[in-house]
Amino acid sequence: MTQPFSFTLHATDGAARHGAISMPRGVVRTPAFMPVGTVGSVKAMYMEQVRELGADIILGNTYHLMLRPGAERIARLGGLHEFARWPGPILTDSGGFQVMSLSGLRKLDETGATFQSHVDGSRHHLSPERSIEIQGLLDSDIQMQLDECIALPAERSEMQRAMELSLRWAERCKTAFGDQPGKAMFGIVQGGDDEELRARSATALAAMELKGYAVGGLAVGEPQSTMLRVLDATCPLLPHEKPRYLMGVGTPQDILRSVARGIDMFDCVMPTRSGRHGLAFTRRGRVNLRNARHAEDPRPLDEASSCPAARDYSRAYLHHMVRSGEALGGMLLSWNNLAYYQDLMAGIRAAIAEKRFADFAAETEAAWQAGDIPAL
Question: Deepest of 8, 107, 242, 299, by most Cβ within 10 A of its Cβ?
Answer without folding.
Answer: 242
